[in-house]
Specification:
By secondary structure, this protein is an alpha/beta fold. It contains 16 helices and ten strands. The strands form two sheets. The protein has an eight-stranded parallel sheet. A two-stranded antiparallel sheet has the order 5-7. Helix 10 links the parallel strand 9 and strand 10. Helix 10 packs across helix 11. The two termini are 21 Å apart.
């Protein structure tokens, strides 16, 4: 493997315990790989050159574990982190797997279940902080409905806000320094999940008591399930200063949540995503929330993990090549027509600026005639990606 495609520690490539440790179960078939322990997962990730590992509370500690078992597990896990040079940038809570959450956690109709969900999350935040996590992700996998007869969506939003406000205060009081990152998904496992797309959370965050603590964790597959352009969702988060974490994988448009290896399906989308992150100097973790094929054994799971990171590194180099290509940049410069005088007028409203703009000699026929060689630009992009340019 060429040295320039080796994982760069500065890019903070991470995997979840639930990703490389996935046993290959699906709705139509049971496990095809044996369960491996968190320590063994750390060993695997250390071998492939990952930066860190993330976890749900119950990926690490079983939901019914006693205090002694919990402490033993955490002690062994922290030793494995150290032995493999790994860190834990992010933690989260499993609020979707247990039967108690069959109708939601923070949005449940049952006040006792909502309280239990907050209690469980506080304990999981304690666990994450103990392992060094500074980002806390919230994915509302069961926060939704199959029928709107069953739950009032306005009540659900209010309940979710109440829970997040409570947990923000808990983090502040405990001095954990967490940044909360919300992860959207349109459906699955619920028929309809509240906060279906990243934009839903970008609108929700300003309504919180501590919006400065809160951002988003967009995932490629989740936005592609809804047929959306993921690059645009990430751009919106970056522009708002709210991209706290990102889940990288791949996905056929309009399918169930496939969680394929990063860049394995929609290569051009993956290219523009990497280009956006690198051009904007995103410095947070790049987390591969993906799974190896069900046909894979653990030797092939390692190839899956290496492939996620290697593809990112290759696309990072392609983005640098695109940015340096003289013909590409000439087209980019040509189509981005600058006019400093007009830009000054439109940058900020004033009565004078409005009148000057009304008087400006803008000829729509002349403007429409300007060439836009986008076919050429897109072809050059494809040639960069295909390695012939």
């Amino acid at each position: 493997m060429p040295n320039n495609y080796q994982p760069d520690p500065k890019l903070k490539f991470t995997f979840g315990l639930w990703t490389v440790g996935n046993v290959g179960r699906d709705p139509f078939g049971g496990p095809v790989r044996e369960t491996i322990s968190p320590v063994e997962i750390c060993d695997l990730l250390g071998e492939v050159g990952a930066y860190g590992v993330n976890f749900h509370d119950n990926d690490l500690v079983p939901i019914d574990a006693g205090q002694t078992q919990r402490d033993d597990i955490v002690r062994s896990f922290k030793r494995a982190l150290k032995d493999n040079g790994l860190v834990v940038p992010m933690a989260t809570t499993n609020l979707f797997g247990d039967a108690v959450f069959k109708d939601g956690a923070f949005t449940s109709n049952n006040a006792q279940i909502r309280a239990y969900a907050i209690q469980k999350t506080m304990r999981a935040m304690d666990l994450g902080a103990e392992c060094g996590a500074k980002i806390y992700v919230f994915w509302g996998g069961r926060e939704g409905v199959e029928s709107d007869a069953t739950k009032n969506p306005i009540d659900a939003i209010k309940r979710f806000r109440e829970a997040i406000n409570f947990l923000c205060e808990y983090s502040i009081e405990q001095k954990y320094g967490y940044k909360f990152a919300f992860e959207a998904k349109p459906n699955e496992p619920r028929g309809h999940i509240y906060f279906a797309v990243t934009g839903s959370y970008l609108a929700f965050i300003p309504t919180l008591d501590h919006p400065d603590m809160c951002g988003v964790n967009p995932e490629v597959a989740h936005e592609h399930m809804a047929g959306l352009n993921f690059v645009h969702q990430v751009a919106a988060a970056l522009e708002a200063g709210k991209l706290f974490h990102i889940d990288l994988n791949d996905q056929e448009f309009g399918r169930y949540d496939q969680d394929f290896r990063f860049g394995s399906v929609n290569l051009k989308h993956a290219f523009f995503l990497v280009k956006l992150l690198e051009d904007q100097r995103y410095n947070g973790p790049r987390h591969f929330d993906a799974h190896a094929f069900r046909q894979s054994d653990y030797a092939d799971v390692k190839e899956f993990a290496r492939g996620c990171m290697r593809t990112y590194m290759i696309l990072k180099e392609k983005a640098q090549r695109w940015n340096a290509d003289k013909e590409i940049q000439q087209i980019v410069k040509t189509v981005n027509v600058q006019d400093s005088a007009l830009s000054k007028l439109t940058a900020k409203y004033s009565k004078g600026n409005a009148q000057k703009l009304l008087d400006a000699p803008l000829d729509r026929i002349e403007l429409a005639a300007a060439p836009l060689p986008y076919e050429r630009l897109d072809q050059l992009t494809m040639e960069v990606l295909m390695g012939v340019r």
